[in-house]
TrEMBL record:
Signal peptide segment: 1-22
Stretches assigned to coiled coil: none
Binding residue positions for FAD: 53-54, 112, 120-123
Superkingdom of origin: Eukaryota
Protein family membership: Belongs to the GMC oxidoreductase family.
Sample GO molecular function, one term: oxidoreductase activity, acting on CH-OH group of donors
Annotated InterPro entries: FAD/NAD-bd_sf, Glucose_Oxidase_domain_2, GMC_OxRdtase, GMC_OxRdtase_N, GMC_OxRtase_C
A matching Pfam family: GMC_oxred_C
Protein species of origin: Zopfia rhizophila CBS 207.26
Domain Glucose-methanol-choline oxidoreductase N-terminal residue range list: 110-133
Keywords associated with the record: FAD, Flavoprotein, Oxidoreductase, Signal
SUPFAM superfamilies per the UniProt record, alphabetical: FAD-linked reductases, C-terminal domain, FAD/NAD(P)-binding domain
Name of the molecule in the record: GMC oxidoreductase
Length: 492
């Protein structure tokens, strides 16, 4: 059966074994260490927790002039293969989502050198200026956040390309959707504006190989001041008063070796990603956001259009102009509710500007109360905000109009899913609750900032106060570039 699936993105480490010696060692290049006996020192200028997208970007920038020593502590291992494979992933199952028939979901997060950029879907979009301006508004008058494309500058060896020529059927689908009422086709298809566009992917444009934090910010670096230890599980940050001074880690797979403490002369940098950075820090973990999607609104063609079959065209949908607010996790404090109100204010603006990928439901990421060393408890609380569910309904209706009223109507498509019998909003939402996937692996917003602590910075996706209406890796690279500059300025 020829079908078309519209995928609508919705609003988602031994001290005894260790050779202790003075730095610098005559090391040859940036080195991957398998265990602590191979480390050249027990003290570095900077210690980075997490060798992923943000961690390796910051590590590259802090070691480039050879003045400072950096150690990256990475829980995953080095893997020459790439892409989403359980071997390179954490294995986390979410808490049941009451808004989605209590279904549980696999939480996608990379666990490998290069982090999620090694396993992700490579859709490479930045957010719009308006959205980063919203962060500024949410971060107070002294915020230095501003939209600045220099953070995606040419000297970053992270590449993007549009890939091959569109297939004929894709052109057909594009043309029909572009004529839908209210649909816009932004001129710059990577800029995170709502509308319809061919989107760039994070690959080089010569060999079409994945461009990741590993290829762009680790490989080829010949730096004796830069080391990474893999298979390391940091389990404690030590403070002197309010200042972070060292990180303790244990071996991920060898429990016979005692913990090792690495001193950070200048700064500790947390880059373990949205799910695990909160594990290392006390405080706020309740602003958790991701994009959800409807995996299968399906049609069967009556008359098959010309052109070859394309299983999953991805397109950005027209947003509904709605704004109303309900539903927050009960664990929210007064301060958090206040913060959420501010977000709503900013969101009202974003919605008016048609930017559509802004989920309003908020989840939590909390340590296991029975054992804080266990995996974090991830609760998406997806569709807990009724506005998010309204948007889902609008997306289904939009797909119906697209298939039956646009230029595609000549192909006489029959709706397979949800099926023509589903008509009322309640019926559509009932169907969607059984279908929606609450994550396109864009976890963000778990940490609202580290206040009252010195010598420590968070540089990963968890610092986004609100999710951008775009995929997240490009924004993470920019955050890391900015963070590296700020850390350098603060600690020189
Ligand atoms: C399957 C998947 C598909 C995605 N698709 C896209 C897409 O198409 N386009 C897009 O732009 N974005 C996509 N993303 C999202 C994007 O890749 C992430 O937002 C971004 O890479 C996050 O960067 P980060 O530095 O915050 O975390 P990560 O890159 O995940 O880095 C965190 C690192 O810390 C390590 N770590 C974790 N816990 C610890 C610990 N306790 N101690 C030490 N190390 C630790 C991890 O192994 C990892 O290497 C996808 C993500 C996934 C998982
Ligand atoms: C996840 O499971 C796979 C096997 O399916 C395993 O190879 C991998 O190491 C696991 N990830 C973690 C972080 O334990
Ligand atoms: C989900 O689980 C909760 C708690 O166990 C229960 O009260 C609720 O009825 C369940 N909802 C559905 C739709 O099954
Ligand atoms: C902003 O910075 C000024 C000058 O450093 C300081 O006096 C003020 O308290 C800061 N305001 C906020 C809201 O942090
Ligand atoms: C790495 O750098 C060292 C010293 O700076 C140099 O002698 C060596 O040739 C370099 N190796 C490579 C592969 O470039
Ligand atoms: C731990 O894992 C690393 C990398 O896979 C391996 O080289 C090492 O032998 C393992 N150690 C133990 C004790 O299993
Ligand atoms: C359109 O499809 C319906 C049933 O799905 C069929 O009855 C009708 O003949 C078709 N019309 C054309 C022009 O293909």
């Amino acid at each position: 059966m020829d079908s078309i699936y519209g995928t609508a993105l919705l609003l988602w480490l031994s001290a005894s074994l260790r050779i202790i010696s003075a730095w610098p060692q005559p090391a040859i290049k940036a080195q991957i260490r398998q265990d602590s006996s191979q480390l050249s020192a027990d003290e570095y200028d900077y210690v980075i927790v997490g060798g992923g997208t943000s961690g390796l970007t910051v590590g590259d920038r802090l070691t480039v002039d050879g003045k400072f020593t950096v150690l990256v502590l990475e829980y995953g291992y080095f893997d020459t293969s790439v892409g989403m494979n359980p071997r390179r992933m954490f294995n986390i199952t979410s808490e049941p989502s009451p808004g989605l028939n209590n279904r549980t979901f696999r939480v996608g997060v990379g666990c490998v050198v290069g982090g999620s950029s090694t396993v992700n879907g490579q859709v490479f979009l930045r957010g719009s200026k308006l959205e980063y301006d919203a962060w500024k508004e949410l971060s107070g008058p002294n915020s230095t956040i501003r939209y600045n494309t220099k953070y995606w500058s040419k000297d970053a060896k992270i590449y993007a390309t549009f890939g091959g020529k569109p297939q004929p059927l894709m052109k057909n689908l594009f043309s029909a959707i572009s004529k839908m009422p209210g649909m816009t086709v932004p001129e710059d298809s990577g800029a995170g504006e709502a509308g319809l566009y061919w989107y760039p992917i994070s690959q080089d444009n010569v060999n079409f190989q994945r461009s990741s934090a590993r290829t762009g910010h680790w490989e080829g670096l010949n730096r004796s001041n830069y080391e990474m230890i893999v298979g390391a599980k940091p389990n404690k940050i030590n403070f002197d008063g309010d200042r972070a001074i060292s990180v303790q880690y244990i071996s991920r797979n060898d429990s016979s070796t005692p913990p090792v403490t690495i001193k950070a002369r200048k700064h500790v940098i947390l880059a373990a990603g949205s799910i695990h950075t909160p594990q290392d820090l006390p405080g706020v973990r309740s602003n958790f956001q991701d994009h959800s999607y409807i995996p299968n609104i399906a049609y069967s063609w009556g008359t098959t259009p010309n052109g070859i079959f394309v299983p999953r065209p991805w397109c950005s949908m027209m947003p509904p102009n709605l704004a109303a607010m309900i539903g927050m996790p009960v664990s929210y404090t007064k301060e958090l509710i206040e913060g959420y109100k501010q977000q709503q204010h900013v969101y009202a603006k974003l919605f008016r500007k048609k930017n559509n990928l802004h989920p309003l439901s908020r989840g939590t990421i909390l340590p296991d109360p029975d054992d804080i060393d266990k995996e974090m408890k991830v609760d998406y609380r997806a569709s807990s905000n009724t506005l998010d569910t309204r948007v889902v309904i609008e997306i289904i209706k939009f797909m119906r109009r697209y298939m039956t009223q646009s230029d595609l109507k000549i192909y006489n498509a029959t709706e397979m899913l949800p099926g023509a019998e589903m008509q009322s909003d309640e019926e559509l939402m009932g169907w969607a609750r059984g279908i929606i996937i609450p994550s396109v692996y864009h976890p963000a917003g778990t940490e609202l900032g580290v206040h009252g602590v010195r010598g420590l910075s968070v540089v990963d996706a968890s610092i986004m106060p609100t999710l951008v209406g775009a995929t997240t890796s490009m924004t993470v690279y920019a955050i890391a570039e900015k963070a590296a500059g700020m850390i350098k300025a603060k600690t020189k």
